[in-house]
Every structure is written in C-alpha cells, then in structure tokens.
Amino acid sequence: MKDFWNNRYDEEAYAYGLSPNIFFKEQLDLLPRGSILLPAEGEGRNTIYALNVGW
Q1: What is the pTM of this model?
Q2: What is the per-residue pLDDT across 11-35, written as a single tens digit (0 to 9) for each?
Q3: Phi and psi, residue 19, nearest 5°
Q4: Residues 28, 32, 34, CA angle at the centre, nearest 5°?
Q5: Per-residue DSSP letters for 1-55?
C-alpha cells in the first residue's frame, strides 16, 4: 500500500488539478473566517484555497 501512495504522489502533475473541490469551496465561502484543520489533504489544493481566502 505504501508503494501505491508513493507512486501516486511522486508524479509532477496534480491528480485532481489546482482548483479546490467545488463543494468544499462553496461551503467554505459561506462560513465566517476562523481557524481550520484539514488533515489528510492529499495534494493540498483545498488547503491552499482556504489560506488564500483568509483561513
């Protein structure tokens, strides 16, 4: 299993693109800014979006 994940994230291309998940973005935009924890965020596209909008 370790080899599966190492191979998946060893590539330079992003598996899910650079834009945040649409549902995540829509829901996050409804909430007042504050602290957030996003564990197991994979490539980090949702985390980067959250940081860019003030979380």
Answers
A1: 0.77
A2: 788 888 999 999 999 999 999 999 9
A3: -75, 150
A4: 90
A5: -HHHHHHHHHSSS-SS-SSPPHHHHHHHHHSPP------S-TT-HHHHHHHHTT-
